[in-house]
Design brief:
single chain; Rossmann fold; six-stranded parallel beta sheet; 48% helix
Length: 401
């Protein structure tokens, strides 16, 4: 038995109530540890599938987990979605009258327009930025400390809170905050009591408040099994708290495991990642390792004087890979901004013949997070009004559209 197989065997054999696996990308932490542990629990006599809960950060990840466990009856959900279910399942709490009308992203303009009337000297763009900062506060600090630095921020906070109350509307960002608040105040919440076996995938991508909710949720559980890797946390813009999994793993009552060998990345890429990790923490000894069977891989750092020169270089590299018979589906070009992505697609389509990419090989396409069209927004609002006909916000949004 290999060391990796032995490690996963130990995890499956563990009868600890708290288990943590910190593992490298491509190490099989989900497919070879989390999912088999779920299946092991479900196979136990007397275990009701409704008592098995699998949580993740993203809807995509939750959908993948749901697909992997199949029609077992176990629940796979994002933390945010589970918190919303909790708030909807209980009546006697502060936000209950408001969560029937959660603000869609495209409805924030209505709120900002009303804020503009309250603060006529402030530009709408600045009000939008302030609203983003205020909403983020629900995820990263106690709400009684958010926007309390000065009179201007306190006035802005009060205006937003009053507006939400008047419109009986809620912001997405406050859902987890109120779920934590409810869980701390009420001890016998049915939905929490049903979660006997809790599994959390990609724990490093949860923010502090979401990790606090997991702690509250698992207080009386039979098992809390957490997997992730602090070095894989890429959601700082969502206030992810990668230090949380390291802290959890270090607790004395937690059965902790570490697996730092990756089968996903080329050896050169792994060596570069090790150097970066070492630079960020010179005292660090636990570093990523590549499997001996991994390919070497490639890394190139190139600087160009103009955007067109940069585009030309990237396009040339794509052409070389096409000539090496690399499938188009295996090539992705990442950009920091939508505008830049669209500009590259336009450039590539005009110049692809020059690097040997013919029309029959396909076209370059820019993809990003999908945005609703005006017609789609209108239909969503009508559906929301059908579900909640008393919503002032949705009614105003329909009229303004």
């Amino acid at each position: 038995m290999s060391k990796t197989e032995d490690l996963y065997s130990q995890i499956l054999s563990s009868d600890s109530k708290h288990i943590c696996l910190i593992a490298a990308p491509g190490s099989g932490k989900t497919s070879r540890a989390l999912i088999p542990k779920v299946q092991q629990i479900l196979a136990k006599p007397g275990v009701d599938p409704k008592n098995v809960l699998i949580l993740s950060f993203s809807r995509l990840s939750a959908a993948d987990l749901k697909k992997r466990i199949g029609a077992t009856g176990a629940r796979a959900s994002t933390v945010h979605s589970f918190c919303l279910s909790l708030l909807l399942s209980e009546d006697n709490h502060e936000i209950r009258k408001r969560i029937g009308s959660i603000i869609f992203d495209f409805e924030r303009d209505t709120l900002i327009a009303d804020l503009k009337e309250k603060f006529p000297t402030v530009l709408k763009r600045e009000l939008g930025k302030q609203l983003e900062k205020f909403a983020a506060g629900w995820a990263i600090e106690p709400h009684d400390q958010v926007f309390e630095e000065n009179d201007e921020k306190r006035a802005f906070k009060q205006a937003v809170v009053n507006w939400l109350d008047e419109h009986q509307a809620a912001m997405m960002e406050e859902i987890v905050y109120h779920a934590v608040d409810l869980a701390q105040k009420v001890s016998d919440l049915k939905l929490l009591e049903e979660a006997h076996y809790i599994f959390v995938d990609e724990y490093q991508d949860l923010n502090v408040l979401e990790q606090t909710f997991v702690d509250l949720l698992s207080a009386q559980s039979e098992l809390l099994f957490v997997v992730g890797d602090p070095d894989q946390s890429i959601l700082s813009f969502k206030y992810a708290h990668p230090e949380g999994i390291t802290a959890f793993a270090g607790q004395t009552h937690v059965d902790s495991y570490t697996h730092l060998k990756t089968g996903r990345c080329g050896k050169i890429i792994v060596d570069f990642a090790r150097d970066l990790l070492k630079q960020s923490d010179p005292t660090r000894t636990a570093l990523l390792e590549a499997l001996p069977t991994n390919e070497d891989g490639e890394i190139h750092f190139v600087r160009k004087q103009t955007q067109d020169n940069e585009f030309a270089y990237v396009l040339e590299q794509v052409g070389l890979r096409f000539k090496a018979e690399v499938s188009p589906q295996d090539i992705i070009i990442l950009v920091p901004k939508k505008k830049l992505g669209r500009q590259f697609v336009e450039y590539a389509e005009k110049n692809k013949d020059s690097v040997g990419i013919s029309q029959t090989m396909g076209s370059f396409k820019f993809t990003s997070k999908p945005e609703f069209t005006d017609e789609e927004q209108h239909r969503i609002l009508l559906l929301a009004l059908l579900a909640h006909p008393s919503s002032i916000l949705h009614f105003r949004s329909v009229l303004s559209g």
